[in-house]
Amino acid sequence: MTASAGAMRESALPLPIVRRGKVRDVYAVDADRLLLVATDRVSAFDVVMGETIPHKGAVLTQLTAWWLRQLDGVLAHHMLSADADEIVREVPALASHRDALAGRAMLCRRTDVVPIECVVRGYLSGSAWKEYRRAGTLAGEALPRGLVESARLEPPVFSPATKAESGHDENIPVSRMRELVGAGTAAELERLARLVYERGRDVAAGRGIIIADTKFEFGQRDGRLLLIDEVLTPDSSRFWPADRYRPGGPQPSFDKQPLRDYLEGERGAGRWNGEAPAPPLPDDVVRATSERYLDAFRRITGATLSLSAQP
Ligand SMILES: Nc1ncnc2c1ncn2[C@@H]1O[C@H](COP(=O)(O)OP(=O)(O)OP(=O)(O)O)[C@@H](O)[C@H]1O
Ligand SMILES: [Mg+2]
To answer: Where are the alpha helices (DSSP H) in the chain?
Structure first.
């Protein structure tokens, strides 16, 4: 048996498929509801790997569900249920697929997606560090001088991006976001994104994980903004182990570091050119990555992911 045994590459459900992203399959349930299914696909350096990572999809869905429950009463969100038995009761067409859904599926309110990625950065990393190093700015706006790579940003910086259909999202100034969605919606998106990030950052910090930055999406429904998509997961955020935090350089990624290290090694040795297809992953890399995702879930929620609920 390989390390990927039991993991899911692609879902196949008897509902109309709306899209397959790098990680999630989205189905239409009816005019009001969507089913989001997180598969066990994994990407690194924008390339989807041939292997799947056991339990990764369930970690993404159950961690999102956990955060959204913490946020009940704080802001409106899209989750209706992340419990397979309940989903099957709600959508009888899925009755014979209960085990395939277990842990990884979320029944959601369907919204009109606001075409802005609401990025909040509490630490200077990634594309933000690149721009700052070059121009001293972030999305065109000045930041204090003398910051080092991975420096903590206080207060956190809201840095929106446009949702690109393909390729990389583009950072845009807040003034551009106002033109795209209107001043009122822009202000509300920023307020909500900051609120959720600051709560998440504080909770995770108490549990040994730095959420360096994260991306939220919002959707409109009945004239209200709802928090949608995935929330404060390792795939939508940079998670760093707090005990290894050393500003002044890049930080190890909590979850994908074994995978990144392996791929860097293959590239350095001239066995991979950095583009799809990715090289095959050894079992120990798959296992180590799976273990990191489970550990992130355990640390943040204080609970072990229920594996018995999965096939
Ligand atoms: N409640 C919702 N209503 C409408 N659309 C939603 C809702 N929640 C999530 N979505 C959309 O579902 C999709 C989730 O798919 P997924 O994240 O896998 O793909 P993606 O973000 O488009 O691409 P990528 O592979 O880069 O992540 C996103 O396009 C997101 O905007
Ligand atoms: Mg996405």
So the answer is: 56-70, 84-90, 98-101, 126-135, 174-181, 183-205, 257-268, 283-301
Quick one: DSSP state of residue 95? G
20 CA closest ligand 1 atom index: 18
Question: How far is residue 279's CA from residue 287's CA, in Å, rounded to a whole number?
Answer: 16
State both tokens at 238.
Answer: 């940079």
Band of pLDDT at residue 306, cut at 50, 70 and 90: confident
Name, in order, each residue with C-beta under 8 angstroms of 29's C-beta and a sequence gap of 6 or more.
Answer: 15, 35, 91, 107, 110
Average pLDDT over residues 151-172: 87
Cα end-to-end span (Å), the chain = 16
Cα–Cα distance, 70 to 98 (Å, whole number): 26
Whether residue 309 is predicted with pLDDT greater than 70 in this model: the reply is no
70 contacts: CB under 8 Å, gap ≥ 6:
199, 203
Q: What are the respective helix, strand and coil percentages of the chain, to the nearest 5? A: 35, 25, 40
- Torsion region of 6: left, alpha or beta (phi above 0 gives left; psi -120 to 50 gives alpha): left
Is ligand 1 within 6 A of the CB of residue 142? no
For ligand 2, the distance from its centroid to the CA atom of residue 102, given in whole angstroms, is: 20
Between CA 154 and CA 126 the distance in angstroms is 17
- Note if the pTM is more than 0.90: yes
Range 227-232 average pLDDT: 98
Using left for φ > 0, alpha for ψ between -120 and 50, and beta otherwise, residue 271 falls in alpha
